[in-house]
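Exercise (ungraded).
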Amino acid sequence: MDDAKIVQLYWDRDEQAIPATADKYGNYCTSIAKNILGNQQDAEEYVNDTYMSAWNAMPPHRPNILSVFLGKLTRNLSLNRYKHNHAAKRGGGQVPVILDEIMEFVSGTDSVEQEIDRRELKKTIDAFLGSLPSDKRSIFVCRYWYFDSISDIALRFGMTENHVSVTLSRLRLELRNYLFERGFDL
Amino acid sequence: MKKEEFCEVFGDISEKYVKEARADRKAKNIVRFSGKLSLLVSACCLWYR
C-alpha cells in the first residue's frame, strides 16, 4: 500500500492503518528500536507504541515522508525508554558507545550562560551534512540517527570496521570544527 | 551541552538525509542478501555436480 493511502487511513480513523503500517514499516521501526534498546522484546513493545503515537498524531499531522515520521517517533520513544533503563542501569544497545563518541564535540555540561539556539544548531548540522559526499553522509546518519553498529555499517557499505571507525572519527572532528567556526562552542 | 541533548537535536536533521540513509541501508541489505544467495546457489551447484 502506498504511503498516501496509509496516511489517509489514519485520517479516516480506520483501524486498518495500524496493520498496514506494521506490514510496510514494522521491520524498519524495529531495527531502530533494537539498535537503541538492545533487545527484541523491548524493541517490539516500543514499535507498538510508535503505532499508537502515529494514531494520536494523525490527524492533525500529515507527514511529508511517512517512513521518516515513523522512524523519528520510534527513535524518540526508544531514547526516552533508554534514559529510563539507563537510570536503572539496564540495557542500552548501541547508545552508550555512541554517546561517548558524541562527547568528542560537546562539553557534557549544562551552562545557563551558554544558551544554545537549537534551531540554529540543527540548521548548521544540516548545512554540514549537505557539504558531505552522499556516502559519507549516509554513514554518519546511519551511526548517529539510526544508531547502527560499526559492524552493520561496515557490512552494508562494503568497508572494514576499521575503515568505518576512522571515517566516523574524521567526520566527528570535521563537525566539531565546523560548529566551532560558526560560533557553537558546545 | 549534554550529549543526550545533542542526540535529540540530531534527531531533527533534514528528513531528506534520513530518507537517503534509509535507502542506502535498504540497498546495502539487498546486496548482502543477494551476495549470500549467490554463495548458496554456487554451493548447491558444486554439491549437485
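Further reading is listed at the end of the chapter. For now, observe: The interface with chain B takes residues 28, 64-65, 67-68, 71-72, 75-76, 79, 83, 98-99, 102-103, 105-110, 114, 116, 118, 121-122, 125-126, 129-130, 134-135, 137-138, 141-142, 144-146, 148, 155-158, 186 of chain A (CB under 8 Å). The radius of gyration of chain A is 18 Å.
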